[in-house]
Known about the structure:
The complex is a heterodimer.
Chain A: H1 3-13, H2 15-50, E1 55-58, H3 63-71, E2 81-82, H4 83-91, E3 95-107, E4 110-115, H5 118-123, E5 127-130, H6 137-159, E6 175-178, H7 180-186, E7 193-194, E8 197-198, E9 214-220, E10 230-234, H8 235-238, H9 256-260, E11 267-268, E12 270-275, H10 281-290, E13 295-297, H11 299-352, H12 357-398, H13 409-434, H14 438-441
Parallel strand pairs in A: 4-10, 6-9
Antiparallel strand pairs in A: 1-12, 1-13, 2-11, 3-4, 3-8, 3-12, 5-9, 6-10, 7-9
Chain B: E1 6-16, E2 22-33, E3 38-42, H1 49-57, E4 64-69, E5 72-73, H2 79-89, E6 90-93, H3 105-114, H4 123-130, H5 146-158, E7 164-168, H6 176-193, E8 196-201, H7 204-207, E9 212-215
Parallel strand pairs in B: 3-8, 3-9, 6-7, 7-8
Antiparallel strand pairs in B: 1-2, 1-4, 4-5
Helix pairs in contact in B: 3-4, 3-5, 4-5, 5-6
Amino acid sequence: MNLVKIVTKNMRQRALATTLTGVSVALAVALTVAIVHIKRGMQQRFEQSTLGYEMVVGAKGSPLQLVLNTVFNLDISPGNIPWSLVEKLQADKRVKAAVPFSVGDNYHGFRIVGTTDIFGETFGYKLAEGRWFTCSIDALRDAFKEALEHSQERIAKEKGVEPPKPAAHHHNPAEAVIGATVARETGLRVGQTFIAAHGVEVSPNAEEHTDNPWTVTGILAPTGTAVDRGLYINLDSFYHIEGHEVRDVPQKDAKPEEKDNDPDPGQVSAVALKLRSPIHALPLYREINDGADAMAAFPAVEVRKLFAIVGNIDRILLAQAILIGLVAGVAIAVSIYNSMSERRREIAILRALGARRRTIFAIVVWEAVAICAVGAAVGVVGGHLIVVAANAALRHVSGFTVAPLALEAAELWVVAGSVALGALAGIGPAWQAYRTEVAENLAPTS
Amino acid sequence: MDNAVLSMRNVRKGYREADGNRLDVIQVGRFELGAGDQIALVGASGSGKSTLLNLIAGILLPDAGTVCINGTDITQLPEARRDRFRAGNIGYVFQSFNLLQGFTALENVELGQMFSGGGTGGRGAQLLEAVGLKNRLHHQPRALSVGEQQRVAIARALVNAPALVLADEPTGSLDETNGAAVLELLRQVCTEGRHTLLMVTHDPAVMRHFDRVVRLEELR
Lengths: 446, 220
């Protein structure tokens, strides 16, 4: 016989109250654990994804939208920038690498990204199997010309005039390297082909580019970033798709010769930069943003801003969870306090048998602590189950999932806080038990 | 008496009434019990018999006087030490058994051992066997008859081999047959263990079993 056994017996004797108060603690802990876990996990995933992406450049608009679109394969592209800007940035001595991206299609909801063969090398993405797609700058320029011809043909048709005769063009094979998640979820393997659907998200009415199948040449090793959920194709093949005109329909006030003889027909959604030195980041950022053509954004900064906004929401949720915890603490105190009148005789018997006042005090406090500790343990498991359940929604919204079994240091604090709450909740009733008069309470009450 | 197990001198215990006057419930000039003595203490209802037992057990403190158990004046001990002293030296049997619900017979007996600071060992089971409850060790009080419950209470009172056993009308809740059996058992185990037994009663049938019967008024 020991204190633990006495505490356990007391809890069992009041099974309903113990269970209900324990459940409220578990609920508060589960919510807290889930919120902390999801926030930390998502932030980690987002920050991990920005590694290597020192700066992104795209059309003027929302920097967050540009970053979400370029780095995380989320949201829609804010617009296009001219290929000449990509070349200008590639030639800039401050820039170590400038990787272009074009988006606009998907395969089973996974985004198809047109880029060049420096993509993997620049950001350190390794192939798990196969090889990188074939890509050459000549083929890309040829693709721009061909796409321009398609645009001119369309404009001529709109004007009702004879379109110019198309020239012969060199095509690289349409090839793709796919992310680890795409391979796992779609079952695509090296050597297999796939057909893209128009638009960056799945739509029942989306047009399929059946005349442009891509062959998978490689599968990327898992990165834990948005790259796992992308299909990366050679940029020239992107412009072979009908409807991927290299420039917008000319402005109404543009001169006819400007419309038909655009010297810079190529356009991309964005370009990601790696700089030779961090010292160049701010001047280049200002230079681009001061210009009229494009906008620069720092992915790491935008992610921090995003989580600062999200942080306000999770602080509200955390405050709610803490409130639930406090209410649970009060419920435990009230429940034990209410049981005191029926337990006075029990306490008096224990005292008559030789139990000291402080032993009685400890029994009551430990009872409250045990309820909170068991509730907290159940809550931690529950919190992780919530994360498992939330992963499907997280994947849909962000493309990321959170490892449900990973333990956060904050969880230990939550458990420790719950135990402390239990101790606090037990003090009031324990004091009442401590002061119980033995002689008065030894006789049974009717 | 040089080797008194219990020695009370000039003990007074009273309460202040609503009108401010003091009412002495207990007044004991001198009262001593030796090792192995078995005494019935008799008094009218409400005369303070239970209060006297609580004073001897150290549950209540007297307003004046000394209460010595085996030479230790328990009125001078701090409360925590007095509690521990009680657990090790005094066994208490109540009229209403005072077993803890939710605990088995064996656990109730072991509770008596727990607070004395000794290990629980196997003495609880031995005692329950000795009082005829070998097959009831793991039964909860509600599954036992009233006679069996009082046997558990006797085993609990004796589990620390106390020098002094206090019994507050232990047969008061039992029928004649059960009461006689319990009384016989209590006297027998106290005789075998040379425990001093002080039993409060107002039942003449119980008094007849004792060679020495003391009226509360005689203690003044």
